[in-house]
Design a protein that fits this description.
globular, 51% strand, single chain, Jelly Rolls, mainly beta, 2% helix
């Protein structure tokens, strides 16, 4: 299930990603490095300096696991660690434990970070095993990691979720990697994870990790993390106007309407209207992406037939069920729309395993767009400077 939160704001997720020899440099290295925005840490521990032949692998539900140095996807100029493998059975996660010999040693720190690329059609979850100078063991979750887009992977930073226990220095003895499939994954298909550049990091350098829930306000309700609206005078209305469903909120003399007209089964059916009458799209060509027996069904695929199987407005929640077909292949899914405070929540769900992802699409009729950091989601968004957007 995927949830999209639109908060009075147009947006487009910018995940510019394409695999290594035939690609431009910015597709094989982090753009922050190619543009010289990140300097190499002089004290980083580089895989090119390690004898990976001494590191050992233990695996479960994985075949062909191999660890070596590779120049396929570099960070700076050195080779990086390349872990190759294939998951045997998609009904169970794969597991690869890498024992480091000798261990990597880190001095006093708040966090330990490193760079990860991959896998492409699976999610890799890291756990690091440390031993302190006074022989206290810690098993710490790693958050962040590589990015995925359109079946390809790209570099991203990973970070320990907390400080190791005991006294420094700390030895990193083992990396445990749990590998879980995403829609579109295939059993036995070769996968790779690249990693490099282990370094200590202070708190202020930390990108927002998964344990942000311990430091930020808890969800205001069980269904979202949206902040509570303090103004008690806000009113909301959901109604059908001809073929269009209008989700409107009013805050004093300000008004905004989310307009959904079910035509294509994509998020191109959604628009926003401001109180001055201006309309724009937030999620043009967004929606469900599926690969059905080799037939790609995307929001912008030409010639796709869209069938609205059900459309029900009940208790201010609009539920739609769609079948989109290309040739003799089809995919079925549901999308629900609900106005919460000032935000429209879109929930996409399906039992169809051919669905690969739920794309956010692009903004239209939003001039003067600027690239800004997104905060909680960890990736950049393209937003209008006249309105704001939040996911």
């Amino acid at each position: 299930m995927h949830k999209l939160f639109i908060l009075t704001l147009p947006l487009m997720m910018v995940c510019i990603c394409l695999s290594a020899e035939d690609k431009p440099l910015w597709m094989t290295k982090p753009v922050e490095i190619t543009e010289n925005k990140i300097k190499r840490r002089p004290d980083s521990i580089r895989m090119n300096d390690q004898d990976l032949t001494k590191w050992s692998l233990q695996t479960q539900n994985v075949s062909g696991a191999r660890l070596e140095l590779s120049g396929d996807y570099q960070l700076w100029e050195d080779r990086v660690a390349k872990l190759s493998f294939a998951v045997n059975d998609l009904d169970f996660p794969g597991q690869i434990d890498i024992s480091l010999d000798p261990p990597l040693v880190f001095p006093e720190n708040d966090f330990i970070e490193f760079w990860v690329n991959g896998p492409a059609l699976f999610h890799g979850f890291f756990v690091a095993d440390f031993t302190s100078a006074d022989n206290i063991s810690s098993r710490i979750e790693i958050v962040g990691g590589g990015h995925q887009w359109h079946r390809l992977s790209f570099w991203g930073t990973a970070l320990t979720a907390k400080r190791p226990s005991g006294k420094p220095p700390w030895k990193l003895n083992k990396l445990e990697i749990t590998i879980k499939p995403v829609p579109g994954a295939e059993a036995g298909r070769p996968q790779t994870i690249y990693f490099d550049e282990f370094a200590i990091a202070k708190k202020y350098l930390a990108q927002l990790p998964l344990h942000w829930r311990k430091h930020y306000p808890r969800p205001t309700t069980p269904d979202t993390i949206l902040p509570a609206v303090k103004n008690p005078d806000i009113s909301r209305q959901v109604r059908k106007n001809a073929e269009c469903y209008e989700f409107t909120y009013r805050d004093g003399d300000k008004q905004l309407s989310y307009l959904y007209t079910p035509r294509t089964g994509t998020l191109s059916d959604l628009a926003i209207r401001l109180d001055n009458g201006t309309e724009f799209q937030v999620t043009g060509n967004g929606g469900v992406v599926a690969d059905v027996n080799g037939v790609s069904i995307k929001p912008d695929t030409p010639g796709v037939k869209a069938e609205l199987l059900n459309c029900d407005l009940r208790d201010d929640v609009l539920t739609t069920v769609w079948r989109r077909s290309s040739g003799n292949q089809s995919v079925t899914y549901a999308m629900a729309f609900e106005l919460k405070q000032k935000s429209l929540i879109i929930t996409a769900s399906s039992t169809d395993r051919t669905i690969e992802r739920f794309e956010f699409g692009i903004t239209e009729n939003t001039p003067s767009a600027k690239l800004v950091p997104s905060g909680i989601t960890g990736g950049p968004f393209l937003m209008s400077c006249r309105q704001t957007a939040y996911l």
